[in-house]
């Protein structure tokens, strides 16, 4: 018996006014799979991520997470948001909360954990992203790479089934990119299900099970990283790779 995929998009379409940003998207992500999404700017990668945790609505099609269709609103939406973690390019930490408070807020408010329990788990997660020694600082006192690792710990604190990463290293100074990719590579090895929008081709080669190439709102090509990078099939992918590699 084939396992049910954790995330399924079927015939998903989305417009912003006249702009057709997602065109008949079909994509399944298996449990434990790492899918890297690449493609030119404006091709719909962020919108794709945002529809999966319902930060954007879709016009037609179906998205299911772990067998349940995306809820429209209400309680179901809060559940979904804890099942689907998201890490953004711009970190989006709470500026007036400490590192540890950033990581414990969701578990206390949404998962109804006690403060002590949330803090114990929060410290474990901060260890895991190698930043426990900064637990009582505020985000502005940290480097970009450190802030992004806190954002990853914050996502993990909700025990998500899948984490979406939208260009998590694009806003970082070059010397900080690797520390964030290392944490993501560890998560991938530990079996976390991940959808990662990135231009970091080294990460894609090392950590991805599958590369999805998008252009103009469509999935143009899907393949293993090896096949995709050495033998892209579409002209769009060849053209894109010639510009970035
Ligand atoms: P990518 O992440 O691949 O760069 P996006 O998903 O951000 O692409 O954007 C896809 C297209 O949708 C772009 O043309 C962008 O300008 C447009 N777009 C994104 N968000 C909105 C929005 N909230 N309203 C109108 N247009 C948008
Ligand atoms: Mg984007």
From TrEMBL:
It is found in: Cell membrane. Its EC number is 7.4.2.1. Residues 7-241 form the ABC transporter domain. CDD domains: ABC_HisP_GlnQ. InterPro entries: AAA+_ATPase, ABC_ATPase_HisP-typ, ABC_transporter-like_ATP-bd, ABC_transporter-like_CS, MetN_ABC_transporter-like, P-loop_NTPase. GO terms for cellular component: plasma membrane. Gene3D superfamilies: P-loop containing nucleotide triphosphate hydrolases. It catalyses: a polar amino acid(out) + ATP + H2O = a polar amino acid(in) + ADP + phosphate + H(+). It is a peripheral membrane protein. It is an enzyme of class 7 (translocase). Belongs to the ABC transporter superfamily. This is ABC-type polar-amino-acid transporter. It comes from Marinactinospora thermotolerans DSM 45154.
